[in-house]
Write a structure and sequence with these properties.
Elements: H1 5-16, H2 21-40, H3 42-70, H4 77-96, H5 98-127, H6 132-151, H7 155-184
């Protein structure tokens, strides 16, 4: 019987974390619950996300500004200073005006969906790789989603980011639950040399 060394290596790594399957399962369940809360409270989750992003940008901008003044004799000082100011100002504006920040993020994401979906659909149709139809469908769904977000602006700005984060958390949680149950149900490995 032929044994695939790649599969054996993966199986060995899976057995190494087998004792942690309960923690992985717990993390998955918690992510599913948190994602559900984000979807139910999508407006609050959107505004909280924009606020936290603003905090991170403000803090990183302050750190960059401090560092810029520490190396003020460096030839790149002005660019470093401008980067710090831009980050700090963007962070402040997101904290001060989270609704506008949510609208901007939604516009960027909607544009990304439309443009990325078009490229994916056209590229798949042009290249015609195996099962290319699924990529075309995926691209079309992205384009439709982007157009729906744009058409529903500014209403979609308040719910979409929180909803998307919630869906992402749920999908990650489901993935972790699946991994943990698969690891838990692995057969026992015989000790080496027997």
């Amino acid at each position: 019987m032929y044994s695939n060394p790649l599969s054996e290596a993966r199986l060995t790594r899976a057995h190494e974390i087998r004792g942690s399957w309960g923690w992985i399962l717990l993390a998955g369940i918690l992510l599913i619950m948190l994602g559900t809360v984000c979807i139910i409270g999508d407006v609050t989750a959107t505004l909280a996300t924009v606020f936290v992003l603003g905090l991170f940008l403000l803090f990183s901008g302050i750190v960059i500004l401090v560092q810029a003044f520490r190396v003020r004799n460096w030839s790149g000082f002005f660019l470093y200073l401008m980067s710090g100011l831009l980050r700090a100002l963007t962070g402040y504006l997101l904290i001060r005006y989270p609704g506008v920040g949510a609208a901007v993020l939604t516009l960027v994401l909607a544009s990304l969906f439309v443009v990325g979906g078009l490229f994916r659909a056209i590229g798949a149709e042009t290249l015609k790789f195996p099962r290319w139809g699924w990529s075309v469908v995926s691209g079309i769904v992205s384009v439709v989603l982007g157009i729906l977000l744009l058409v529903q602006m500014p209403i979609s700005a308040f719910w979409f980011v929180g909803f998307a984060i919630g869906v992402d958390m749920i999908m990650e949680g489901v993935s972790l639950v699946g991994v943990s149950t698969a690891i838990h149900h692995l057969p026992d490995m015989a000790p080496a040399g027997i």
